[in-house]
From TrEMBL:
<feature type="domain" description="PAS">
    <location>
        <begin position="9"/>
        <end position="46"/>
    </location>
</feature>
<dbReference type="InterPro" id="IPR000700">
    <property type="entry name" value="PAS-assoc_C"/>
</dbReference>
<dbReference type="Pfam" id="PF07536">
    <property type="entry name" value="HWE_HK"/>
</dbReference>
<dbReference type="Pfam" id="PF00989">
    <property type="entry name" value="PAS"/>
</dbReference>
<keyword id="KW-0843">Virulence</keyword>
<dbReference type="InterPro" id="IPR011102">
    <property type="entry name" value="Sig_transdc_His_kinase_HWE"/>
</dbReference>
<protein>
    <recommendedName>
        <fullName>histidine kinase</fullName>
        <ecNumber>2.7.13.3</ecNumber>
    </recommendedName>
</protein>
<dbReference type="InterPro" id="IPR035965">
    <property type="entry name" value="PAS-like_dom_sf"/>
</dbReference>
<keyword id="KW-0067">ATP-binding</keyword>
<feature type="domain" description="PAC">
    <location>
        <begin position="84"/>
        <end position="136"/>
    </location>
</feature>
<dbReference type="InterPro" id="IPR000014">
    <property type="entry name" value="PAS"/>
</dbReference>
<keyword id="KW-0597">Phosphoprotein</keyword>
<keyword id="KW-0285">Flavoprotein</keyword>
<dbReference type="InterPro" id="IPR013767">
    <property type="entry name" value="PAS_fold"/>
</dbReference>
<keyword id="KW-0418">Kinase</keyword>
<dbReference type="InterPro" id="IPR036890">
    <property type="entry name" value="HATPase_C_sf"/>
</dbReference>
<keyword id="KW-0808">Transferase</keyword>
Amino acid sequence: MAKDAGDERLQTLAEMVEDAPCGMVVTDPDGRLRYVNETLSRWLGLPAAPADRPSRLPELMTLPGQLYYETHLAPMMRLQGFAREISCSLKVRDGAPLPVLLSGVTRYDTAGDPVRFDYTIFDARERRIYEDELRSARRKAEELAAIVRTSPNAILSVDQSGCISSWNAGAERLLGQSLETVLGHPVQEAVRFDEQPHWFDDAVEACRAAEEVTFETTSSQGHHFEITVAPIDEQEPLPATRHYSVVLRDISKRKRAERRLQMALGEMKHRVKNTLAVVSGIARQTLPAEVCHGFIARLHALSRAHDALASEDQKGADLRDLLAFTAEEAGGRERFRITGPSVVLPPHQATSLSMALHELATNALKYGALSQPGGHVSVGYEQDEAGQVRFVWQEKDGPPVTPPTRRGFGSKMINSVVKSDLSAQVDFDYRPDGVRCEILFTPGEAE
């Protein structure tokens, strides 16, 4: 019975070694393989026949592991009798190398000489992935820290109570205080703005409904700042325990440049209007009366377009504003009905379209719907998802329309200049009940 129990224990032990959750290898002191358990054989796809298997432990390793075995691992096992968690890779038949952690212990005979090296080998794929992710995260964190450290802007971290918890070198340069003097102090005391003494509290309240809040303010020294406050979502998501990032940018130079630009724009607007006035005066003195009126009217249309562009700080003009000028010229909203959204046109397109609208209104007043008391013009436009604008001018309740026998200046201008400056498709339809003009274009497409 005792023999049977012993055999059963040996069988159990053998099965545990063969099917262990780690690889097990036994070599002699020269690295010759004496035993490889089933787990490692399965991991590496080793042949079943012993004669077809590698004969030495280094032969299971990739080239870097082989070099490390000869120069470090084998001497370590001989001299100190063990090795702990050596990272290396093993060759896998028809597969990618297997990253492992290898530990070993030396067995000695009675004379104290090494007779066997026993190794345990653990699959380190998940650990390798974790370490790679950790290195990548550390590298990104270091890059981000370098950006914050070297930023010319003041970057602060403020805790849920409104006190400063970090303060970069940019803040020291910009605000003239070291971190030691402001750490733990209320941010609204360390960074004061006379016009907005409760700026941080107001920003935190606004962050309840927005991802971040950006505003501009002025310090008591006259410096202009743009400030962005945003919750740090990696912290506790509850508003009562959130931390906040605060970024202050000195925009004093930009504000000075904007003031200079506004002055230059005002001066340019004044000079252009004076120039147009001079041209208008010359026209009155030199052109025949029948030509002068139309020429001066076109100058006025150009002047109104210029006013609209100047009022938009050179960004362009809204199509609704251009139509409002045309409505005044056509006799008011009762005779000029507009339907459409806000569409901002760049300067070159706004100028061309303004003159085209003037030509259409002039023709309607002289020959079309606006030449009779009951007539009117309906203007409708819309912008699709691709940004294309479909603009329709439709005259109604005017005299019967007959197609023109020749093209006048207005139609030539619309069909040439507007097509060129707006990359537009222009279609005229001389219907008996009223002229219809359709213009298809994309704002900002042509220059």
